[in-house]
Amino acid sequence: MATRWISFILILLLTAGCGGTSMISNPESVQTLQGNDKTVLIFWHTYNDKETRLLMQELIPAFERDHPDIRIKCINLANNNELKYNLIARASSGRGPDVVRMDIAWVPEFSHKGLLEPLNGFPGFNDVRDAFHQKVMNAGHYNDQYYSLPLNLFTKLTIFNRELLARSGYSEPPHTMDEILELVRKQHFVIGLGGLEPWDTLPYLYSLGGSFMDRDFTRASGYLNSDRTVRAVEKLAKLYKDKLIHLSAVTQNRDNWAGVRNGNLLLTDEAPWFFSLLKESDKRLALKQTLSVPFPKRNGTGSIIGGENLVIMKGSRHPVEAWVFMKWMTGLEGQLIMAKAGLIPTNKEAVKALNVSSHSYLYPYVEEVDDSFLRPPVKNWSKIEELYTVYLHQIFLGHLSAREGLDQAAEGIDKLLKY
């Protein structure tokens, strides 16, 4: 608790005097801009270093040229739970930033808590909404209102070691998850799994025929504890017991990516950022060492969607200008600028204009997005995620059978979905 309040105080100080992390290099110029009736928006984001350089050197200057009456002060913060708690505290007291680039999984909780401005009433909202696929807009939909605009998306692929596949007689990976697991067991290969959270495990469960909730996200019973899901979890837990699944979250060794490249692992799953952060020569080598393919689909469902959305925090002093900034960021020009860092656009026109080469590491990720699924957009998602992960740990460690653990998890999740 003390750590949370220390982080909160630090963010207060950052916001009070953030000239060093702002587009406005001279703090005194803020007063000058305000004196000239120019609006200053506070924008919190979680871009990495490469993305931040594009933001500061290209995107913000381009926006400010188009909108000379608006200036953007950018605050770069770590994407973790401390940021989430601090945002909740500040927005609850009406002292939050104007615009936030927020983890897509956080948006439902913030909208249910009444901490975000609804967007439906802003000028041109319907046209902006139609620029995106409805699936990605749904993350910010609550009580007939929309509370966010999707900014960038990513999904995960299965990434194989080419040499291990070839040694086993495969020029490409098996087409079903059951066949992949059979290959792992037959050849005593190892799968690198990041952890047991929904982000890590749901693509495997779905590929094995399992499920999580009903389509309306009202209950987990009958889905998470269905016979198919139980069998799927049993298969994965048995592989872990036989040391054929490496859980980096348990061993504190999170470099599954290196394990696949050097042949210690047959496969792992990952979003595109590892490729995007590599130098060009190392990227070419990584593409020779590995083969990235979509998760095997079962019932039309592929991998999981992650990403960030833009929101206007409740209490923003400049909601109209914030909307102008959000529209521009999610428009064609803004999306194509940030795509240079390997971020997948959400705007349909930008995706078409991106024209990713089939030889690019990004190509299979862009192709996979349409078949990927959102995490349930429910207000208690963080609690549901935690409960699910606790029970999967109990199952994998052998403290509960898959049936016992999933029955208890489904019952607990049903309760969280009711309030």
UniProtKB/TrEMBL annotation:
UniProt-listed InterPro entries: Bact_solute-bd_prot1, SBP
Pfam families, alphabetized: SBP_bac_8
PROSITE patterns, per the entry: PROKAR_LIPOPROTEIN (PS51257)
Protein name, entry field: ABC transporter substrate-binding protein
